[in-house]
Write a structure and sequence with these properties.
The protein is of the alpha/beta class and about 300 residues long. The protein has 2 domains: about 140 residues, Rossmann fold; about 130 residues, Rossmann fold, CATH 3.40.50.620. About 35% of the residues lie in helices and about 20% in strands.
Length: about 300
């Protein structure tokens, strides 16, 4: 399915333990943003960066990447990473396969799959089309959707990460990921939840203490969790009166990243397939990371999808 070119930038005896980030690219501005974001993340985490370009015959021939174009694009992307992030180890993959299939296949076992919000060919209309939908639904690792800063408020202070929580295991995983990211980047962490039914009302004990108090308890426990594991992180809380999706999109106007879990309670339930994730991925004003526990969550094939 795939042909690798320029696979290794340098030898590395620790390949088996090195984390792995995958990014899909084409010749669009959105892909360039995704590539730089992914390379920066790989540099912070001492991760290998795998750059993927897909091509296939069929469909509208004017939008299909030919093999020679794919090789040119992936080589240009490799050179860009080496120039801007010389310490990052790079792999490149030119895949003769539909774009979504190629990204899913290369990202098996990866820590993170990164895609841009706009692109050409197979990436066209990514957030609304089949490629983005397929990646969010079927990737076995966490997925980052790199959106532009359009509509984002100017921020002269430290970078700001927003994480949505609802007390579920999925949101706890997202909280841990966001806290680690805030620690690595010296960012402020804003923990956001909603009082709107059913997110807070489905929290265990809500029937006894009431929805408003349940929401306060959810966000309080989240702040306490961050403080206990990453006391150096500046953490703030927000309990919104808006529905979860709208609360997170509104918070994204003042953020550098929004982080969500892949499973949750209430409005966050079935996040990768549900309305909250789709709304945030389509309307956020900054990059969106959907955290997935690829170790414990079965793949689509194992679930019989």
């Amino acid at each position: 399915m795939e042909v690798e070119v320029g696979v290794k930038q340098r030898a590395d005896p620790d390949d088996k333990v090195r984390s792995h980030i995958v990014v899909g690219v084409d010749s669009s501005a959105g892909a360039t943003q995704a590539l730089d974001w992914a390379a920066t993340e790989a540099e912070r985490n001492d991760s290998t960066l795998s750059i993927v370009v897909a091509w296939a015959y069929g469909g509208l021939t004017t939008t299909v990447l030919l093999e020679r174009d794919a090789e040119r694009i992936v080589e240009g992307a490799r050179k860009q990473v080496i120039e801007r992030h010389p310490g990052v180890r790079v792999e490149t993959h030119v895949c003769r396969d539909p774009t979504a299939n190629a990204l899913i296949e290369v990202s098996r076992g990866a820590e993170l799959l990164v895609v841009g919000s706009r692109g050409l060919g197979g990436f066209s209309g990514l957030l609304l089309g089949s490629v983005g939908q397929h990646c969010l639904t079927h990737a076995e690792c966490s997925v980052a959707i790199i959106r532009s800063a359009e509509g984002r408020a100017s921020n002269t202070g430290p970078s700001r990460i927003v994480v949505g929580v609802d007390g579920s295991e999925g949101s706890n995983l997202a909280l841990d990921w966001a806290a680690n990211e805030a620690c690595r980047t010296n960012a402020r962490l804003d923990v956001v939840t909603s009082r709107i039914f059913p997110a807070a009302s489905s929290y265990l004990g809500a029937a006894d203490i009431g929805v408003p108090d349940a929401a306060s308890q959810i966000v309080g426990e989240a702040v306490g969790q961050v403080t206990s594991v990453a006391p150096e992180v500046s953490v703030h809380s927000e309990t919104s009166e808006e529905p979860p999706a709208m609360a997170l999109v509104d918070a994204s106007r003042r953020a550098d990243m929004v982080v969500l879990g892949s499973r949750g309670r209430g409005a966050f339930h079935g996040l990768l397939l549900g309305s909250v994730s789709q709304y945030v991925a389509n309307h956020a004003h900054c990059p969106v990371v959907v955290v997935r526990n690829h170790i414990s969550e079965p793949s689509g094939r194992e679930r019989g999808e």
